[in-house]
């Protein structure tokens, strides 16, 4: 193979391939030399008075694989001397850092692999020690996290109609939680707050004035009173939207509560069937298969109460999907609440009480149709990250890893 083609494959314009030293089934060793014959002094910046003083043993640098083989570059370690400032130094290569055995391209490629999986997995792919990959990752994460954070906040601050998403994610379910702040329109995660109580949120706002300087058009969150109080204090002019997924979950819960009541009155065979196929009641009917719709009709035939609550749940989905604007949505919401008033069940009455209390936030969805669906997807990434890294104890390292994991598409920018 001609050496000029090897130069193009290695993507190292500062080097020229001198010869191939050895090649076998697993490794490729290449002798390379720098294209230039002069280099500027690191102290005075001039190359006029720089002279060669000899050579040490050549540096052996691991580079990206070629044809699936581990590739090693043998480059000369040239001693230089500046007569102007009487400084000695060694020839510095751009493709590799000082005193490093892996090229910059190799390190960045290895770190990119490790960010999406684990250090052990990337080590197996690159055939290097896992401790080496972990060390590369630890060195790269702070700078990468800072770059991503700066870019995400800059985009959020410059957005004309910024829509924020606020939701909590469990570190240990039922015990410890984090709160994530998301730019829904820009599809980025801005920051992670330790805790989800009102005092934690207020403390964050005091410590981060750049958050208070945002001017969101709308903020999407669940029905937690702490979030709504906090957002109304920080951004009184923003539209507060109750997340559709969480709101619909309250209606689903009341439907399942009625199902359990009905289930206890049925025959053993019908009871077993309703219990085993209760999930057919949750999704909209038109999303089910033809077979699923037939089985659903069998379940609804067990009780008029169950059918009436299911129809009430279906009407709520229709209201969400078909309300053309905010004014019509207000009328439709009141009509849906009156439909629920006709159902005599404690779970339905409790749900209606909650819905009427949060009426403005629920109906505001039709002023700005955003949900926290992407946020829930990021929660899955966070949980996968926690399992891979065994719940990193270093708080700053943990947050940096989450921000990179949730904004991974920004690595390609």
Automatic annotation (TrEMBL):
InterPro entries listed in its UniProt record: Transpos_ISL3 (IPR047951), Transposase_DDE (IPR002560), Transposase_Znf (IPR029261)
UniProt-recorded name of the protein: ISL3 family transposase
Domain Transposase IS204/IS1001/IS1096/IS1165 DDE residue range list: 164-400
Coiled coil residues, start to end: none
Organism: Paenibacillus aceti
Domain (Transposase IS204/IS1001/IS1096/IS1165 zinc-finger) ranges: 39-85
PANTHER family in the cross-refs: TRANSPOSASE FOR INSERTION SEQUENCE ELEMENT IS1557
